[in-house]
Amino acid sequence: MELKKLLQSVQEAYASLLNATVVILDQSFTPVTRVSRMNDLTESILSTFRFSKNFGRLRRAMWVDTDVIGVKSLITPVIVQDEATLFIWAGVFIEEGTKSWIEFFRKEQQHSYPLHLAKVVSLEQMQEKIECIEKMAKICTQLVQSQREKQEYHHRIQLLNSMIQSFSKKKLGVENHLRLFQKIDPSIEFVAYAERISPDKFLMKHAIGEEVKPLRQLLLYSDDPIVKFLSENKQPLVIENAESHLFVSSIFKQKSKPSFFLAYPLIIDDELVGILFGGSFRAKRFTTFQAEKTVQMIASVMTIHLQYEKTLALLDRHLMRLSNLNDMSKVINMANDVDELLHMIGDLAQYLVSSKLVTIVIGNRHHYIKNHLISQEQLDEYINHLEKRCLEGKQSSFLKLNKTPFGFMIEAFFLLSEEINGALAVHVEKEEDLKEAEVYITTLLNFSQERLRKLVEGDHKELVLSYEKEPKELLECLTKREKEVLKQLIQGRSNREIADHLFISVHTVKNHISNIFHKLGVTDRSQLIAMVYKLNYENSRNKD
């Protein structure tokens, strides 16, 4: 209503300037405003005037003939985003020098139009009226644009509000993000999302839209042109007339390719973690104002959501590791052999820090090594250096960060007796993970150091778990799937993680765990872990 009032005011003013009848019509040529300065002649002409569909192609004001011979009117388009959204009709006029000719034809056709109401204009005046009505059209364009921007602003606020509401209620997943993304602008016909699944791979996990269904489960690689561009530039990509663009061709292998294409990088900690895609097979560009900025806002909210999920996953992982560390503290106190205990400590350190290199040395008598990082030559050199520092070390326990050619090593030196020192060295891949790793390693040593000291000195009692069945028989009583679940349990994974890894339900995982506990005669995970180490099951797992 507000826009109509504004258009009416502008129309009244320009009707006076033009000294003519003026009305504004929509795309179907239905009046948007009340007719200004209408008289008997213009009322008669407007009632029979035929508006051509070709008027939709107009880009400037044009003189057009009416049903009355020699009588003309002006038609002017109101252009908004390269589209004629309204039309201004102004009339009527008679070109100077043609009135007598018109009177003659009027008598021949026996029509009684009140032609004295038509304004006679010279060619110069006709040009002036074109310029005047085009100024009116520009003002109308600004009013319509302003109204659209206001409507789109409220629409964007509603979209973002719905996202935030769902986000706060923990109900907004990627699929819902994409559907909201699709509602931003009519030009967005399809949307898709690719998630990083490894350092060099992205998987197209979601694709909404008939034309993009074949993209589901598509693998993108870090050296693909579009992925490389987004990783390096970390800026959105908006491509108009995209059919022949290299980036588009690298994703769409079929003949039909989008004419409008968007790709928004989702960045967390300066790393590309996902890509938001959108576009159209018909539209060439955004059709609404500020749509590009709104898409950027949606992408930002989606990034926040991914960051939130990542934080929850990290917290869940941290709590799970602390739980496993607590369980292992009980298992560690059951160890009867130095090598067995070193094996437990080393495996647990590798699990807690997700490390590719763990080594433990105690004097020059005992070693534990798990290496998936460096060459044997590098490993030998590092261990020799570690042993030397261990033997020459202070008579106290301390933690040291050693920056080596192959990355960061957290080195925890500990004292077992006046004569015997030891060291636990763990590789940490990312610098930002060092503090967390230091806490885990320190806690692990606090749990295990006293038991290790007793075993090294030989001052301990034999703690032997007795089982009715032989180790081999115990393992053989488990099914293949139960053994797979057991492997995951030993790695400290939660029921949900095991289910995802083995592609089974959480309920099925719980059933398998109950069966394992029953067959092996244990009641909780800590007893299970202790039994596995006693059976040396971890060695058979490594061989697998």
UniProtKB/TrEMBL annotation:
It comes from the Bacteria. One of its GO terms (biological process) is negative regulation of DNA-templated transcription. One of its GO terms (molecular function) is DNA binding. The keyword DNA-binding applies. Keywords: DNA-binding, Transcription, Transcription regulation. Residues 471-536 form the HTH luxR-type domain. Transmembrane segments: none annotated. InterPro entries: GAF-like_dom_sf, Sig_transdc_resp-reg_C-effctor, Tscrpt_reg_LuxR_C, WH-like_DNA-bd_sf. This is Regulatory LuxR family protein. It comes from Thermolongibacillus altinsuensis. The lineage of its organism: Bacteria, Bacillati, Bacillota, Bacilli, Bacillales.
